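#lab-general

N.A. 3:47 PM
ok so I finally got the sequence cleaned up, no stray characters, all 261 residues accounted for. can someone with queue access submit it? mine expired

B.Y. 3:52 PM
send it over

N.A. 3:53 PM
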Amino acid sequence: MIAVAGCRESPRDRAPSASEGMTSKPQYHSEVDEGLGASVAILLDNSGSMDNRARRDVHGRPKYIVAREAIQAMLAATDSFVATHPDFPINVGLYRFSKTVEQLVPISRYDAVALREALSASAKPNGGTAIGDAMDAARADLYRAGTFRKYILVVTDGENTEGRSPRSVAREIANRSGGAVRMYFVAFDVDAKRFDFVKDVRGEVVGASDGPALRASLDTIYRGKILAEAVDIGETLPDTAHAPATQSGNSTVQSRQKRRP
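B.Y. 4:20 PM
back already:
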């Protein structure tokens, strides 16, 4: 388990300031050679509000328990995917965030046991909500995962209260990755319109008012979008593959991409 300190740039979600303009910042480049496959960072809210009772839960369970079970059910889709596509790399990492960010399972080849054990051992929710910091930490790890396709999946029940604004982080990720990192938000028991900024960077937001809706929303995004797109044969190239490399680290990857049929 790795703790990632919050950046603490702002106590609340806010619009990006002029100093956060993207035009002056270089594009991200991978720290490793990249190839076929997909890497997914699952970011789970563990702030104090997740300890509140989930709406319409017949057992009166808190939201973090309902969310944990929904993610466990979602991962079953990966079991099936790996069984039918054994040669296609799927990397999955798990993070939880409250006031700070913790990496529970690093982004690496899908490990059902490690992921389910980490979910089962989740700590009791407490503290604030560092959504932007969690996104930033996951983005950095995705560029060490070794796949062209990169995804961030956030499950949260509230607004950002700690660290960087998720709005500015989403914009930065979209611009500096050239759209290579796709972002998905599941708004659990909170108005999904709060995260409409993700749509501005070609991401998607879905709402979930209760446990069954959360399971359905996660299935729609994970199985219906992420895994389905991952095998969009023949693995269409990321948008960044068609642009000139801005970092020397990109040139090797892009030249290899262009040689693919």
